[in-house]
Write a structure and sequence with these properties.
The protein is of the alpha/beta class and 504 residues long. It is built from 18 helices and 16 strands. The strands form three sheets. It has an eight-stranded mixed beta sheet with strand order 8-9-7-10-6-11-12-13, sandwiched between helices. The protein has a five-stranded parallel beta sheet with strand order 2-1-3-4-5, with helices on both faces. It has a three-stranded antiparallel beta sheet with strand order 14-15-16. Helix 6 packs across helix 15, helix 10 packs across helix 11 and helix 16 runs antiparallel to helix 17. The protein binds adenosine-5'-triphosphate and magnesium ion.
Length: 504
Amino acid sequence: MITVLLATPSDELAAELEDLSAEAGTFVIAPRVGDTVALNSTLELTEVDVVLLDSGIGPLSALDVAQDLTTRYPDTALVLLSASADPDVLERALHAGFRGVISSPLSLEAVSTKVEAAGVWSQRLRHRLTERPEDRRGRMMVVAGAKGGVGTTTVATHLALEAQLANPERRVCLIDFDLQSGDVRTLLDLTHHRSVDDLVEVAAEVGSRHLNDALYAHRSGLRILLPPPQGEHEADITPEVARGILGAIRTRFDLVVADVGTVVTDGGSMATELADEVLLVVTPDVLAMRSAARLVQLWERRRYRKDGITVLVNRASRDTEVQPDLIGRVLKLPVMRANVPAAFRDLEAAVNTGVPDRLEDGPVRQGILAVSRELQLVRPQKRRSLFSRGDDSGSAIVELLGMAPFALALLLVLWQVVIIGWTYTMGEHAVREGARELAVAGLVGEQVEQVVRDELPASMRDGVSISTGASTVSADIRVPLLAPRWMTPWTITVQQGTVREVGL
Ligand SMILES: Nc1ncnc2c1ncn2[C@@H]1O[C@H](COP(=O)(O)OP(=O)(O)OP(=O)(O)O)[C@@H](O)[C@H]1O
Ligand SMILES: [Mg+2]
């Protein structure tokens, strides 16, 4: 049976729909509310499949309410009851998030068909979202800090954000499980007052609705679970509570990134134990390495975690004495090839404004992207052609084709340079032979010119002009254009001097 919440100020309309519901027998109007305030408070307490919303409701307009409800309760179908069947109304309603419009006068067929279609959609979606954890589990990554201030929150936040931006379809959740002193709230300048506190009571059976209420929806699409506003409430997050909350989140998201900070809390430990992988953030210094070693030993002693720990170097620099290979040897853990260089200026605008998108496209962002690629949170960078700016292969091919004439012209110019060089070399050789005959054999004038001519390749002989002096031989040779048989009007002059060995 499909449950329907009817929101209309009209008693007449309500009575009419009650009759149609009884007649159809496929849906039941559970609660009825008369205004948008009552609608909101009822939806917070009751789960229904379909909301039938009268376009004449107040004080907020039906379209505004719909936009809000589709964000807060994406698994509840909204159907608009409208006095008019105008296509314009339909278009605006669909745009606002309604799944259908029922216009007056109401007929049994129109009402039952639309309510049933909406109800079935909602129930199917809910069923998918509440599949058991064993059936569907997103990837869960814990980011822990070797010690305070190493950049755990920065890394976790930007990794989650890049993963979300790279694929808007992917459901990514960032959990601030640094339960005593988490600062994702500050880093993103959030005023959202809901937090993990709101899930403590329902930890054993966290539903989509609870999560929708508790998670902050960032405009990138990233959902964020904030820590308790008062650090001491961290004690409420017992291991069982943490297990329930993390399990519920994991079933509804493709990727979960949890910042557990440095302090070992019950909640953070449970996340460390449940995660598929742990990223241990260190800075390249001895203090951070010692803290990292202590933390890893603690995890092992308490049996939270032994394997699946990878070290990420933040604030990396080539100038530091402690380099990644040393960190790997000391900690006996794999160290990521990619790292995040030290560059506070890159982060300054993003940190000071609470707008992570303002991270400069400098070494820090490139480092975060390289780390995301190595962790396979974003797809590897495609090879780009020399001149390509696009990143899909189709556009690279088009660009390559566009470049073809330029490449050809470049090739021809290079070939012409080779031809000029060849002409010069052949000319020099012929003139040198002529000069040798002039010096050694005592040949003169035309005889020398004939020697030069004979030494030249046949294709050069036509355009050549040779002159012989008392002790020099020179030739003006026409330069071929690309091939020996095509001559340009330009000539190059080669000359060879000699000492005439007369009388020897
Ligand atoms: N690669 C980097 N280069 C320069 N500054 C950085 C880098 N990474 C982080 N920072 C800066 O270091 C400071 C601490 O960062 P962050 O809050 O992420 O650390 P944390 O380990 O989460 O700290 P906490 O222990 O307080 O939770 C911030 O001001 C941040 O902007
Ligand atoms: Mg932090």
